[in-house]
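Good morning C.,

I know you're traveling, so I'll keep this short. The sequence:
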Amino acid sequence: MRQERNQARTFTRRALLLGGGQAVLFAALGARLYYLQVVEATRYTMLADENRINVRLLPPPRGQVFDRFGEPLAVNNENYRLILVPEQIGDLEKALAIIDRIVPLGEADRRRVLREARRKRGFVPILVRGNLSWDEVARVEVNAADLPGIAIDPGLTRHYPQGAAMAHVVGYVSAVAEHELTGDPVLELPDFRIGKDGVERFREMALRGTAGASEVEVNAYGRVIRELGRQPGQPGQEVVLSVDLALQRYVMHRLAQEQSAAAVAMDVHTGEVVALVSSPGFDPNLFATGIGIQQWNALRQDPRGPLGNKAVAGQYAPGSTFKMMVAVAALESRVITPDQQIVCPGHYDIGEQRYHCWKRGGHGPMNLHEALKQSCDVYFYELARRVGIDRLAPMCRRFGLGEPTGVELPGERGGLIPSRDWKRAARKTPWLHGDTVLTGIGQGFVLTTPLQLALMTARLVNGGRAVVPRLTRPAIMRDSVSGARRELFPSLGISVQTLNAVRDGMAAVVNEQGGTAYAMRLREPDVSMAGKTGTAQVRRISQAERLRGVRRNEELPWRERDHALFVGYGPVIAPRYAVAVVVEHGGGGSSIAAPIARDILVETLRRDPSRQVPPSRIVADRPEGRT
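The tokens, ready to paste straight into the viewer:
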């Protein structure tokens, strides 16, 4: 009996202990549930929503680019793209094999997707293929249930309706390279493209805009169920250029007759560039959609350099177009007067070195007017010697030579105006008299770009104002056909007498018999032209070659021929536009570059809204074949 009572007490104690333990356990469980469901309700609701809701960046529409009259130069076309999210895919290589049976993929596409999947975070979408046809879009949508993590993304593709005509000005967009990632998440969006050249690159941040966001509800597999909200991004700004598209096309067509050339036309008072062409060009749409390796190699290996913008990055010896700078420096330094004569016997001696004039028999006595008109080398040899490089170099820089002009394009080069210090630093040798003499005719170390030559001409003929070239205009001016409001640029401090003397010589080059470009004269005073021819050697002619007679340019290999140059302006009485033309290995400036410059200037004046000269009034004399 006692034993039974002991067993009962033991059982009771154990039951109480077990019941107490269970009570504590359930109390703890209840407390934990209370904590999770009540105290931490907000936090876990947010975590649940993060699993249920995905926030996706929306690329902003890129700003469009227009010419001065509102013609589209860069626009956005609709583009359907196939994208995938790696973390929702599973076996990526197996998924690509499935996709390949629905939408054909190239080996390059496969490698790119695998490379980007390793490089990017798992939730960042990756472009599989762009520019899908309607048939391909339909095949993907039909198989959508079997393709988790894969979707059709409607986007925008940059399109350049003007093709090669505006390629070097507008530039192009292309995929973001790894070294261009800055931490901005928009740059990691699939197939997001940024400006790589031209205005597209220079105005990248303004054209890019601000990304938007989309909230979408997804299931456990990551498939989108519905869109919960959308915050649109801020589209990029419109950019309006000063370039006249019709004129640009004309210049491109005119230069296409030469193997390699560049031309610039600009308003001498406002600095607006109305045409800027580098020929040959290329189709920027190739880069916007993804250029193939064969096309890229063809462009890169072309000896004519279609990818480079020769108008702002091509550096050439200016030849005789530089003689105006020597004249200005000499007149302002008062080492000569316009009427003072220098005799040209056909050569110029410094010590044992002889420098020849282009006219073997010499020009005889020359004043400034005749020396510019006939482009006498000996006259400018002597002028440069009297001025000296220490006064000549600073004068050249005042007219925009030897440094970038600041035009709104990437890759502009500054050319070279040599000096004593430059030669000592770059060549480790002192400056010589012979260096000054060669500089006097735009040879030796001097290098300029076509844009710099146009700027130099503009500053010479606009009253000596330090006009600055510009390529963009305010958007409010897009629909305006009137000329831009003139800005009062600071004076260069050059006397009116000096500028008039140089302009008078440039007018004689074209409009007086005996001028090196007399065959290019225009007989209507309202559209008369003045200018200066130039021929720049690309190789040194040996004494042996001189003795046996130098072969004509057309008899030499193309790369050994002289560059042909011409700078001009018009009209002569009231200058409005300056033009510079460089034809690589073209030969003589008067026979090759001058006719091109004349045609460009005539077309520019025809299209000038403030003038509207009837085409029938513009009559050019037939070229006489002068070299």
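Safe travels,
E.
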